[in-house]
Amino acid sequence: MNKLNKTHSKRLWITWGLIFMLGLVNWSCSKDDDINSDEYYVKYEVNSSTIYTGGKLDVVLTNENNENTSLRINTGSQWETVIGPVKKGFKSSLKVNEVGNNYGHLRLYTQISVSKNGSPFALKEINGSDEPRTSVEINYKIDF
């Protein structure tokens, strides 16, 4: 191999090496951008049952602005709401407390589900019991 071919061969290897390195850097950057552009929606659900009518529950949830939102719902019914969009790392929280007294007959069931980029909601946290209780709290941090 003559000196000209050796120099050309070296330059060719250096050029391909640089192209490979730039491609690797570009691929890793675009992957981070994709992660940061993911949008999540959080669905909070409360279901309760009791032998009494007219009861109320205080519900406190974390909204898309990372603030607590308080509202009052009826016992003996199913309730849900969806918030978002939020980003990965969002800490969802749902607290439910009995208002008044159901004399040991209130059963509470709660769920947090998450949708990523428009996909169907996936159940992430659940707390349900057939034992009577007056309050429940569940939390979930988005990590997928």
What is the compact description of this entry?
About 25% of the residues lie in helices and about 45% in strands.
Overview of the structural elements:
By secondary structure, this protein is an alpha+beta fold. The protein folds into two domains: 1-37; 38-141, Immunoglobulin-like (Sandwich). Helix content is 24%, strand content 46%. It is built from one helix and eight strands. The strands form two sheets. It has a four-stranded antiparallel sheet with strand order 4-1-6-7, with no helix packed on it. A hairpin with a 5-residue loop joins β6 and β7 (122-128). The radius of gyration is 27 Å and the shape is rod-shaped. It starts with a helix and ends with a strand.
- Low-confidence segments, given as residue ranges, are none
Q: What's the helical proportion of residues? A: 10-25%
CATH hierarchy: architecture of the largest domain: Sandwich
> Largest beta sheet: what is the strand line-up?
4-1-6-7
CATH class (first level) name of the largest domain: Mainly Beta
Largest sheet: 4 strands, antiparallel
CATH topology value of the largest domain: Immunoglobulin-like
Mean pLDDT metric: 88
What is the helix/strand order? HEEEEEEEE
The percentage of residues in β strands lies in over 45%
Count all strands and give the number: 8
Radius of gyration: 27 Å
Distance between the termini: 54 Å
Shape: rod-shaped
Q: DSSP helix count?
A: 1
User: How many structural units, i.e. domains?
Assistant: 2
Alpha-beta classification? alpha+beta
